[in-house]
Amino acid sequence: MNQADFINQLQELALGTRLKRLSDTLMGDVAKIYKDEHLDFEPRWFTMLYLLNKEKSLSIIEIADRLKLTHPAVVQFANQLKSKKFVLEKKDKKDARKRMLAISNKGKLVVEKLQPILIQIENSTRELLQESGVDLLYSIEKVEKSLLTQSMYNRVKSGLKKHLLSEVKITPFQSKYRTDFKLLNEGWIQKFFTLEKSDNQILSNPEKYILESGGAVFFAVHQKKVIGTIGISNHGKGVFEVNKMAVAEEFQGLSIGAKLLTEAISFAKKKRAKQVYLESNTKLRAAIHLYDKLGFKQVENFNSSSYKRTNIKMTYALN
Amino acid sequence: MNQADFINQLQELALGTRLKRLSDTLMGDVAKIYKDEHLDFEPRWFTMLYLLNKEKSLSIIEIADRLKLTHPAVVQFANQLKSKKFVLEKKDKKDARKRMLAISNKGKLVVEKLQPILIQIENSTRELLQESGVDLLYSIEKVEKSLLTQSMYNRVKSGLKKHLLSEVKITPFQSKYRTDFKLLNEGWIQKFFTLEKSDNQILSNPEKYILESGGAVFFAVHQKKVIGTIGISNHGKGVFEVNKMAVAEEFQGLSIGAKLLTEAISFAKKKRAKQVYLESNTKLRAAIHLYDKLGFKQVENFNSSSYKRTNIKMTYALN
DNA sequence: ATACTAAATGTAAGTACTTACATAAAACAC
DNA sequence: GTGTTTTATGTAAGTACTTACATTTAGTAT
């Protein structure tokens, strides 16, 4: 293509724009043709009137569904077509909300008058496609079908997620990340609960309260920024406790918690853990869901916790 | 496809609408993704900023050309991008009309931030197209190229013209068309000149003034309606004169005049004409052009005409 | 130098929709 | 039957442009 055609140079990046441009060209030309015939008729009404010409009578929503338009668009067209007396309306007998639309005789006449033009548009389009030697209609249909299985939004989103995740590195404790450990955890605790004494102790001095007794702290790092953390305490006799797990809000929902928790569990396994448990609160739906997914089971009756907020205890099934 | 999808059922007739729908879906999803990243950035600015990121500095019109947008669209984007400080502007030194736009550092930063998303959009789109198993980009390019050689408008227009022409029948004089003969001719004479005595005579009684002396009158009939007429008078000794040619305004420009004139000439030939001439006025540009095209040559010096409006005489070169 | 045309930009209003919100009737839950 | 949710429709305002028109400056002809 033309060297100056920047949009075409962008290739896949500007597919939407290119489709739009082609569509605008085609629809603009058709609109001009309608105008030339100076029928008192707007091209945008065509699909709707044509539909009503095939069907007895339809409600606003039914039309919107068939034409894949929003209902306000149909309401607007309906009012315009009604004022031109191309359609008639009456209330549905069984449902007083519904406004049933049907084509009028005047409407039928326009469709009939339009017929030769429509046939010509159809033929010219077919000719254009044949001349181009590509089955554009088939291509569109295929792409539409693929989009039905997964939308562009989801494709890009999950692609971004994968990419981001591949960039996130898990590292063991480093003293330069002490403040991150504290701030990330204070974040969620203060959002949902209140800081307790043991929180302050552990967060201010993880070395003393987690590492020295044989536990560990891990960080999730993305582009030199700490975006998540987890602690695992060693209570002796093979008993480990997962705690102080936090992921920065803007990175939540990206399975970073899962990555951290997996790391903590494998640490415990390496230390020949006999039991791994955690205490939490059912308010933290996302966290509980994650624990559940990774294999933690709720302990029915339990007591003694260092935190007021605890209302659930879960243990990990070591094989 | 879904039985309820009326637009797809229309096939070639609704190609534009389908392209638009697909484009809207894709572009809407991309817009949603930008929004999710809450960059202070509108998707519609993207192509322009991206272009400015590649080029040093461009004027409004240059950008419009490159992006195939209208210049007011670019003016609007430029103002928005300027107020967000994504672009800088300065006047061209040589041309005080031109407003040269360049990307700012802030703008470069956004493009950089956008980069991973752009790459993902590109990848996901490529994936979508591969999954669909069709080369949509190639198809679009092909169709665009075909449209460059002839626009949809011209295709449909010439198709309609051909179709209409195929429906127009030329018939010899019939008395039921007498009024049409009169009215059609009075139309153009009164529009450009004034009716003269001989006009009234011939138009009121073509049988006497044209037919009885061995001339002929033909009609162009479309769907039982007379839309054009021509007379050819036999002046004796093999001399024939074409006159009273008229085509209804709404059917002008469709070569119906050519059809009538050809018929008249072949009538004269059948009658072993030695000379066929006509008198006209240079005001009637379209008619003169037609005579010229069909082989009539201007007679340099001539006198004696039955009409005041005559200022040109042409003869047909009989082989 | 003057007059005209053309080019570059700007502005207003329209177009073909959309999203967001409002309202009324119907359907359902209990 | 009463309250709540859902469905069908309507309305207002926004969006991403366009067309039509206006203004200013440049270029060209005389």
Secondary structure layout plus pairing:
The structure is a homodimer of 319-residue chains.
Chain A: H1 6-9, H2 15-36, H3 46-54, E1 58-59, H4 60-67, H5 71-83, E2 87-91, E3 99-103, H6 105-132, H7 136-149, H8 152-167, E4 169-172, H9 178-192, H10 197-204, H11 206-211, E5 216-222, E6 225-234, E7 239-247, H12 256-270, E8 275-280, H13 285-294, E9 296-298, E10 312-316
Parallel strand pairs in A: 7-8
Antiparallel strand pairs in A: 1-3, 2-3, 4-5, 5-6, 6-7, 8-10, 9-10
Chain A binds a DNA duplex (30 and 30 nucleotides) through residues 24, 28, 44, 59-61, 69-73, 75-76, 95-99.
Structure description:
Two copies of one chain form a homodimer. Chain A has 319 residues and is α+β, with helices and mostly antiparallel strands. The first copy, chain A, folds into two domains: 37-149, Arc Repressor Mutant, subunit A, CATH 1.10.10; 162-316, Gcn5-related N-acetyltransferase (GNAT) (Aminopeptidase). Helices cover 53% and strands 18% of the residues of chain A. The first copy, chain A, has 13 helices and ten strands. Chain A has helices spanning 6-9, 15-36, 46-54, 60-67, 71-83, 105-132, 136-149, 152-167, 178-192, 197-204, 206-211, 256-270, 285-294; strands at 58-59, 87-91, 99-103, 169-172, 216-222, 225-234, 239-247, 275-280, 296-298, 312-316. Chain A has a seven-stranded mixed β-sheet with strand order 4-5-6-7-8-10-9. In chain A, strand 2 and strand 3 (99-103) form a beta hairpin. In chain A, helix 4 crosses helix 5 and helix 12 (256-270) packs across helix 13. The longest helix of chain A is centred in the middle third of the chain and has 28 residues, at 105-132. Chain A is elongated. Chain A starts with 5 loop residues before the first helix and ends with a strand. The mean pLDDT of chain A is 88. Chains A and B meet through helix 1, helix 2, helix 3, helix 4 and helix 6 of A and helix 1, helix 2, helix 3, helix 4 and helix 6 of B. Chain A binds a DNA duplex (30 and 30 nucleotides) through helix 5.
